[in-house]
Amino acid sequence: MNLLNLKHSCEKDKGRQAMKQYLKLLMAREGKEVLGRKGSNLWILTIVLVATFASIAFSEGSMIYLRDKMADPFTNWVSINKDTISNVRFNTFREKLQESEIADSFDYRDVLMDQYLGLNIQEPDGDKVEYLSIRFFEHLHTPLVSTILKKENLANGCKVDSSIIIDKTLGFIVTLKALERLGYDKDEIPPYIHFLSSMKEEHAYDINTDSLGLNPLVVSPTVKFVPVALPILAVVRKLPNNVDMVSANFFYEQYHYNESTKPFDVVTHEADYLHHLIYWVSDEVGYEVFCQFIKQQFKNISTYDESKKYLAMKTWKDGKMISIDVGGENLPIEVFNKVDKVICSKWKRNQVQRVYRMDTDESVEAPRSDFLSVEFRSLNHIREFEAFAAKYGISIEMEKVHSLENFNAVAIMAAILSAAMVIFSIVCIIMFLVNMLQSYFQKVQRNLGTFKAFGMNTRELTQVYIIILIIIVLAAVIMALMLTWTIQGILPLVGVEKEGFNYLSLWNTTTYIATAVILASTILTVIVVMARMLSQTPGDLIYDRN
Asked: Is residue 244 assigned to a domain?
């Protein structure tokens, strides 16, 4: 009995092994048939999937761009002009906004008091002047300024070290367009710009005062202005509200309200400013080279590195602040002018630049503000904020809000489009598989009937076709992903991008879910279609009896 069982078991094992070998041969042969002529079915699936993944990537890329814009302080920054509001209502509204409960209810992070001013900036050749608009922020360490200084907004990477951007700086963040208006070459951005020490004629000094040697700008037969070098902290492509420059409120306070030391009226500081020689020396010239030149040209002159002392005058371009001691502060002005003339004739302004000490007074505060700036985390409650402001007689410019609402609408439509495209693609793939299997079945149903007649069951045949279709679909998925990824990588190289954002973002959760759903749909489709078609008897399949 045991021998018979052993013999039966061995025969059964041999039958299973033979069946496995046969199934492998069947899979290899039928796989070629399912692929179609020259792999046409594979390529059709790949094209459908490329369209699917490209639409998902485009939708996700749009969503990333929109989410960034929605969180961008450029967008979420609402500015309220004081000009049309009474001081009492404006101050009451400002005080109300300081309350934490109000901030939480409208979802804003900060309220700042900003100033606005225009300055006369001298062109490089010194013959003309441009009037540039400037916004002075209460603080420079804000999300808005961080956004302004993002890499994609910088021009030629011109940006001072973040640790130097302090609220006590006298420097400016300038737009590239403003510099081009002044006549600077966009490929040779200056470390300093030159503004006129006073916009008021009564503060200008007389043209007959010829001993100062300041290379002034002559604006009338009897009046001239002194150009003062001020550092450029960064050069950017755009600024909020289309202003030309932004700076810290500290500059505004010193320029407009410091009547005690008047730091920008150079002529009133002849003893302090003009009898001191201070130079910014670029690293391309070098501290040692500069000092060696001074020693060669003048005897008994000392040089000192005082970069830490003059942080307020630090510029985006690397360099050091060098003080020159000519031997005494009471020497005639001609001595200082001679040294300065020799230095200026040796180097260009973007290599070596004379600066002044800027006798500032940190106790000075501006008594008024031109703008109230509210930085929102999101604008989900901006409509309620508008109604709240209206109670104080304050009107908010809502054009920006309407744009954001459009952003929201587009984001929703992009999500719906992406989902609809995935669903449409899955339906197309299922229909394609069903038609392909039905067409294929008509050709091979007699063979399948013969297989069933020789003992191959429906489950085994279905598994064969599941494996075949999964391999084909998976190959199409991989090729489609690689093609879409390649397109995503090529777009930025040919300049097809939006403010540093790629239009496509392939690798995301939607792509992974869509891939999983496509594979699952393939398996389910094969099971259902093959089960229905193979439910007939071997005789019905062989003799095509429907």
From this structure: yes
